Amino acid sequence: MAVKNSVTQLIFMGLFQDQEAQRVSFVVFLPVYLVTMFGNGLIILTVNISKSLSSPMYFFLSHLSCVEICYSSTVVPKFLSGLLAENKTISFDDCMTQLFFFHYFGVAEILLLTVMAYDRYVAICKPLHYVTIMSRPVCHVLVFSSWLGGMLHSVIQFLITVQLPFCGPSVIDHYFCDLYPLFKLACTDTFVAGIIVFADSGLFSVVSFLFLISSYIVILVHLRNQSAEGRRKALSTCASHITVVLLFFGPATFLYLRPYSTFTDDKLVAVFYTVVTPMLNPIIYTLRNTEVKNAVKNAMRRLWRKQVNLSRK
User: Fold this and answer.
1) What total of structural domains would you count in the chain?
2) Strands (E), the chain
3) Phi and psi (nearest 5°) for 74?
4) In the chain, helix, strand, coil percent, each to 5?
5) Quick check: 1 pLDDT over 50?
6) Among candidates 146, 148, 118, 147, which has minimal Cα distance to 134?
7) List of long-range contacts for 232-240, beta carbons under 8 Å, 24+ apart
8) Entry pTM
């Protein structure tokens, strides 16, 4: 890497050029990031201490929240610090690290959402076999496979990028290190690399999205034969998941499902799925799921009582 690259430091152009807009963005996005950390952390804590949330669905939800925390933390802290800094710089090695983990957690989330859709399919379409099919060992294997799949995908993207020669310029027209903005800085033709990324990221997202939509179409067809109460409960759970899927896949597919030669860096779209969506997921699941809502309230009470008892000692 040192032989090919004379660039040791990169400069972000950032989200906005106007300093006033940057300060306003910091005031807006800092609370969003804090809510993301608190909301997803609260879901992880609630699922692990609540006996009523022991089903596979909530086991997967806790891992999804863990991925959201890691995914957001890969980009947002550096983004927030850059909003207040005059020079938004990052070392080349740190840039590659950010690129690796961004795609790692992003694909792990896609695979976890797919696993959660499969869980809902089994629960609704094969209820008598649910306990057998979605046993605890199977759940662990599915979660491990999601993390492993994210790792394998990210290794491919990382190897494609790190082997490119970078000799200048060193200014990235973005607020974090991503593939297409980095390709524009490479001192070589990146057409083949762009096609590989297009196939790996874009088509992977589309195939996963189509699998998710197909599974929910099958679920909706199956629900026609159930009682009104059964349909209401099943649809309430599925609606939360479908909302999260659309919020995540919509912007991601928009950015990656096109050849890099026609890529226009829409940073506002990237902000939505890197900053905003990780905050919305715990809110969506909590507001639409009475069981989660009650468990969160109980967890908050327990934490409050524990804090009160500690303060009295």
Assistant:
1) 1
2) 9-12, 89-91, 171-172
3) -70, -30
4) 80, 5, 20
5) no
6) 118
7) 234/120, 234/124, 236/288, 236/289, 237/57, 237/120, 237/288, 237/289, 238/120, 238/124, 239/288, 240/284, 240/285, 240/288, 240/289
8) 0.87
Closest by Cα among 37, 55, 35, 58 to 46: 58
* Most confident option among 121-125, 196-200, 237-241: 121-125
The domain spanning residue 181 has which CATH number? 1.20.1070.10
What's the pLDDT at 102?
Answer: 93
Domain span at 136: 9-312
Q: Nearest-5° angle of CA 162, CA 167, CA 172?
A: 75
Q: Decide if pLDDT at 76 tops 90.
A: yes
SS3 56: helix
In-domain check, residue 122: yes
What residue type is 117 in one-letter code?
A
Query: Is 1 within the bounds of a domain?
Result: no
Alpha carbon separation from 6 to 134, 166, 291 (Å, rounded): 52, 6, 56
